[in-house]
Amino acid sequence: MLLAVLSGFLLAIAAPWLCPLFKDRVGWFMALLPASLFLYFASMLPEVAAHGPQVVEYSWFPALGITLNFLIDGLSLMFALLISGIGTFILIYAGGYLKGHPDLARFYVLILSFMASMMGLVLSENLITLFVFWELTSITSYLLIGFNHEDPAARRSALQGLFVTVAGGLALLAGLIMLGTVAGTYSLSEILNSGEALQDHGLFTAILLCILAGCFTKSAQVPLHFWLPNAMAAPTPVSAYLHSATMVKAGVYLLARLNPAFGEAELWTLMLCLFGGLTMFTGAFMALTHTGLKKMLAYSTIMALGTLVMLIGIGTPTAMIAFACFLFGHSLYKGALFMVAGILDHETGTKDVAAMGGLRGLMPYTAIFAAIAALSLAGLPPLFGFVAKELMLEAVLEAPLLQNLLLVLAVGAGVCVMVVAAVIAIKPFYGPLKPTPKDPHEAPPSMLAGPVVLATLSLLFGLLLFIPESLLIEPVVAAVYGEPVAVSLSLWHGINLPLMLSGLVLLLGIGVFLFWSRIQPQIAILREFLGRFGPEAGYFKIMEGLTKGATWQTSVLQNGKMGNYMIVLVLTTFMLTGYTLMERQGLRLWLDLGGSQVHEWMVAVLLVMAGGVASLTSSRLGAVASMGVLGFSVALVFILFSAPDLGITQVLVETLTVILLVLVLFRLPGFVRLSSTYERVRDAVVALFAGAVVTLLVLAVIEIQYFESISAFHIENSVTLGYGRNIVNVILVDFRALDTLGEIFVLALAAIGVYSMIKFRPEAKEKS
Amino acid sequence: MAYVVGALFAAAIYMMLRRSIVKLVIGLMLLTNAANLLVFVVAGMTRGAPPLIAEGASVPGALVADPLPQALILTAIVIAFGVLAFSVVLIHRAYEVVGTDDLDQMKDTDT
């Protein structure tokens, strides 16, 4: 199992050496891996269908509760099958599509890593592991969108996709951590069983919104959908694989995965229905405004993602069956259609449907299988897409809230998608032959394999519904709904409301399609308007704001002025200290002055005055003199309060200091008033604040003793162990002798530094 | 004494916020003195009982001043002098090379 997930990474590492080895056949060789994975997962199907979910355990960070467990149930297995199955054809297809591309090896490295990450994402049983794989897919997606890295547009699109999905990923991480903390475990299967406890918790709304933010960005829900069409800058195999069949469904996967735990909440239903419904319609409608094949497909993918989200939101058993069918059906036909789009692009040299026509004679197979896949997209019988769409309409009719809105949106989306499907299946292949940049001819077998197999499967599963029914759909529904549901699919439900709605959609769709070439330019104008005021414009505004904000912040915080840094440091330190002090001890202004004598008072006053004069005087001599007074007063304090050694040292050092200052300072310029009055007042306030905090701190500390002092040991053992009667000296040269040694080194270093600065001068060197 | 320490800290920080590099050094000196006093005051002040042991005795009298903070402060005083000597010479050199004592004009690395 571990090997199954990681094999993609292993092959990715080997890819650069395999590419030259197999030359043009490399695609077929690479495809062996996903193909064998597909068989491996398929072999698990009957067992999961019979015995329910299974967990395969590997420990990773046991101390943090992070495991590398894999959960195998209907949902994860269906995704694993889609990833490996479609991956097989994508790898073969890419071999043909990117034939002779100088960076083919890089492409395989990236797409195989992506495949492995995606596999890990859908199979993870642990929230943290899931998140790690989730981010890996974002990063590989970024690298794949920017595959043509010499194209600025591709780079910009890649960055946009990365920003949007990673911003969502951050929210998701926050949500998952909160979820893990609230539930007390990061294990998915345990969380799914504690749904009610979760919903009663105060943090539930926050968790829900964070996770939704992550899923919505990943799965391109309105209004964060704009990155997906831009991601079409990637090579077509990437678009087909990541941005249609797999990665963008990661958000949908997570929503479906968490549905058993969250599904009861009203907020969940409301958010998913509302955003899903809006996305469904917006995607379908925006598809009409474009004529680029890939853009049209991208928007119809957004439509599908919206539909899936909405179906999870509705949450009834029918909706879950519809979800499973739609997910499966969409991956089949959309994969096929993207590959067809790639073939057309590759063979004709243009992506614009309006510029193509009459290719049927030249590319007969492509035309046939494009038509089959498009029929499934449009949701016409007897294809699998039809089953999915009927179920979807049935589920919408059962929606617990917003029923009317959702129905209108669903029908509207249906009409738009019908038109898109018709345009893709008919425009390029029928009508008069139009000249294109390249001479078109039928695609090579490597590129045809994908569309042929996937489109055929759409048709096959539509006709033989019993194959997917019990094997695939039932376990998925059980996993998403939380308990087993009996599934029976059929093409013909009798004449009921969904069927009538489908008929309506079909008629309207045909109507719009007939006038498409006239309507399309009109709708395209709307696109320009949206480009200026839509969510994407908002994205650019935000990015611009970020840059400006960063510049502003740098100029304010990192302005190279020592004073500002100091103020920030001082304020931070003392505010934190002051806050802690207030909270722990409270204010204490009173000081026991009993027993203090007159000469002690005089020294204290002298100290304060010397400090004041030193800081306020404008003469250097005054400052130095008052520093001397200060130093000797400190010495006096030491002597008065039983510290003769300190007093002696202080007197010595102070004498040296004053001499040094007098010698050096007078080679420096005199004091000039450099700062404005405002700065002085500001600094004075900051300084007084710091002083006040220190005072309070000292007052508080005098009262408290947290730990037993270790002085007693020194006092008792000074004579017996250290053979000295001056305890301070014994401590310095005996008990803490190594510290003193270190001190000597510091002083020696300082002396060397001083000497070298005085003695060696760069100017002198230049002369010699 | 607590108020004295507070006042010295205030004076020191005010000086360190000035733009003149000389004042910065004076602020540094004030700060070391203030910090030494802080440790001294916080450890508790005892009058007339230095931590010395009389000849022949193995332990001092009943109550002596705490020797440990005194040892710490002693170290600190000496180190502070080292730092001061170094920084004074450093700013002297810096002034010679850069030609200004205004910190705000020293903000570029390539003057």
Describe this structure in words.
The complex is a heterodimer of chains A (768) and B (111). In chain A, 76% of the residues lie in helices and 1% in strands. Chain A has 768 residues and is mostly helical. Chain A folds into four domains: 1-264, no CATH class; 276-514, no CATH class; 563-706, no CATH class; 710-768, no CATH class. Chain A has a two-stranded antiparallel sheet. Chain A has a two-stranded antiparallel ribbon with strand order 2-3. Chain B is an all-alpha fold and 111 residues long. In chain B, 62% of the residues lie in helices and 0% in strands. Chain B has helices at 2-16, 21-42, 67-98. The longest helix of chain B has 32 residues, at 67-98. At the A-B interface, α25, α26, α27, α28 and α29 of A face α1, α2 and α3 of B.
- The percentage of residues in β strands of chain B lies in under 5%
Distance between the termini of chain A: 73 Å
Q: Which radius of gyration of chain B do the C-alpha atoms yield?
A: 20 Å
Shape of chain B: elongated
Number of strands of chain A: 4
What is the average per-residue confidence, as pLDDT of chain B, rounded to a whole number? Answer: 78
**In which range does the helix fraction of chain A lie?**
over 70%
